[in-house]
Amino acid sequence: MTKARVMESPTVTTIADDIRTPERLSRALRAERRSQGLTQAETARRAGVSPQWLCEFETGRAAGGTDRVMRVLDVLGLSIALHPRPVTLADRVLHDATQMP
């Protein structure tokens, strides 16, 4: 009988956490693009989006386009991981305020 091979989970480095808004996602992608030394023009070309759209997205002015966001993530070698968001002080205060009679 052979032993089952146990594969270790790869270490995941968090680039940005607790992303709850499109603006936070935009800032995180912009920071990662810059850290990789890519220009907006090069990133846009490789992702198949216009440089104008990427500029607007990074500054929080683009009107959505999940498909485009996913292509930019692909160019940067990133993915979105979902996990339970951390409970913040604001969450606790809101919860306590709604529990009062």
Describe the structure.
- The protein has 101 residues and is mostly helical.
- Helix content is 50%, strand content 0%.
- Helix 2 (40-47) packs across helix 3 (51-58) and helix 2 (40-47) packs across helix 4.
Helix and strand arrangement:
Blueprint: H1 22-35, H2 40-47, H3 51-58, H4 66-75, H5 89-99
Helix pairs in contact: 2-3, 2-4
Overall geometry comes to: elongated
**Count of beta strands:** 0
Strand portion: under 5%
Biggest pleated sheet: none
Oligomer: single chain
Query: What is the typical, i.e. mean, pLDDT?
Result: 80
**End-to-end span in angstroms?**
63 Å
| Helix content bin | 40-55%
Order of helices and strands: HHHHH
The class by helix and strand makeup works out as: mainly alpha
Radius of gyration: 19 Å
* Uncertain residue segments: none
Give the count of helical stretches. Answer: 5
